[in-house]
Write a structure and sequence with these properties.
By secondary structure, the chain is α/β, with parallel strands linked by helices. Helix 7 packs parallel to helix 8. The longest helix is centred in the C-terminal third of the chain and has 22 residues. The chain contains 10 helices and 13 strands. The relative contact order is 0.19. It has 2 domains: 172 residues, Thiolase/Chalcone synthase (Peroxisomal Thiolase, Chain A, domain 1), CATH 3.40.47.10; 147 residues, Peroxisomal Thiolase, Chain A, domain 1. Strands 1-7-6-4-5 form a 5-stranded mixed β-sheet, with helices on both faces. A 4-stranded mixed β-sheet has the order 8-13-12-11. Helix 4 links the parallel strand 4 and strand 5. It binds oxa(dethia)-CoA. Oxa(dethia)-CoA binds next to helix 2 and helix 7.
């Protein structure tokens, strides 16, 4: 029997309408467009407004679009994996809620929390279920309402993050396309530099934790930056070398969108011209698990069957990694 590969056969995405610009942020904290553009590279980010709305509302819209674009019936889906650090609630999983909202009733579903590497970890996991021959249709969705954990009085974190969601469909193929290889890592020592202090089992929510603003993102930006630059670049170059892919051969780098300077440093180490790097951080900021599939969606019409893509990210955990993808279809 020939080898079964797991190939991405469609993408879908959704970002909320509300645009939070640098100018509006400048009225909330002591910052300005010039600092944010120079140090991070973000012009605006999307924010999900509305009482009771959560990441599942974003995820459901992305998955709905994916189902429609690929002509997939909800009943055909075997598994849905949601990558998120902003679940609707501690339990049940946001993946369960998304499945319910789009009418996926005969699949199983679960969440993966791997910080900004969540989409990479989830894609690798979903691919295994296809490659094993067990399932035929697996959806991987990154969905984040980052605005729910951002402290809009902290100028060192509030410009960075935005809300959004994007999803891919994985299916089996015997052709030499799809998820070719993965290099994924975690280093738990990094948790001290980027985490949410309260709300988990070691420090449940209380009046004190709320007063101390411990339900927001805590980030020591410099430490995270330093590790992000070296690890994202190292793992991406390692992937190129392992597969003898030159900077000319590689069609696209699809990097996590945390900071334009991290993306540029990674691309430089890989020897890539900027035309081969997907960058949309200016429009959406850091949507954590959604950045990479949001790029795939935006660039879908420029991708050709057989293109080599390296998906690369770094985030809380620390977590990081790269996935080599041979793109599976021409623009439809
Ligand atoms: O996706 C998850 C992983 N996360 C990341 O990859 C984020 C990695 N880190 C970063 O991207 C950067 O470290 C930040 C964007 C978070 C910060 O940029 P930075 O260049 O490292 O700035 P800094 O924290 O070293 O601050 C430099 C200066 C400070 O002022 P002083 O002490 O030099 O007077 C800050 O107070 O910039 C000041 N500053 C600001 N000024 C205007 C910090 N935030 C702002 C702001 N506007 N929003």
């Amino acid at each position: 029997m020939s080898k079964i590969n797991a190939v991405i056969t469609g993408v879908g995405s959704y970002v909320p309408d509300y645009i939070l610009t640098n100018d509006e942020l400048s009225t909330m904290v002591d910052t300005n467009d010039e600092w944010i553009m120079t140090r991070i590279g973000i012009k605006e980010r999307r924010i999900l407004k509305g009482e009771g709305k959560g990441s599942s509302d974003l995820g459901a819209k992305a998955v709905q679009q994916l189902l429609e674009k690929t002509g997939t019936s909800p009943d055909e889906v075997d598994l849905l994996i949601c990558a998120t650090v902003t679940p609707d609630m501690q339990f049940p999983a946001t993946a369960n809620i998304i499945s319910d909202k789009v009418g996926i009733n005969s699949a199983f579903s679960f969440d993966i929390n791997a910080g900004c590497s969540g989409f990479l970890f989830s894609l690798a996991t979903g691919a295994k279920y296809i490659q094993s021959g067990m399932y035929k249709k697996v959806i991987v969705v990154g969905a984040e309402k980052m605005s729910s954990i951002v402290d809009y009085s902290d100028r060192s974190t509030c410009p960075i993050f935005g809300d959004g969601s994007a999803a891919v469909l994985l299916e089996p193929t015997n052709e030499n396309v799809g998820i070719i290889d993965e290099m994924l890592h975690t280093a738990g020592f990094g948790r001290k530099h980027l985490h949410q202090k309260a709300g988990g089992s070691c420090k449940p929510a209380s009046h004190e934790t709320v007063d101390a603003k411990e339900h927001f993102i805590y980030q020591e930006g410099n430490h995270v930056f330093k590790h992000a630059v070296s690890n994202m670049a190292d793992v991406s170059v390692e992937m190129m070398e392992k597969h003898n892919i030159t900077s000319e051969d590689l069609a696209w780098l699809v990097p996590h969108q945390a900071n334009n300077r991290i993306i540029e440093a990674t691309a430089k180490r890989m020897g890539l011209v900027k035309e081969k790097v997907m960058i949309n951080i200016e429009k959406y900021g850091n949507t954590t698990s959604a950045t990479i599939p949001l790029c795939l969606c935006e660039w879908e019409n420029q991708l050709r069957k057989g293109d080599d893509l390296i998906l690369s990210g770094f985030g809380a955990g620390f977590t990081w990694g790269a996935i080599l993808v041979k793109w599976g279809y021409d623009p439809k």
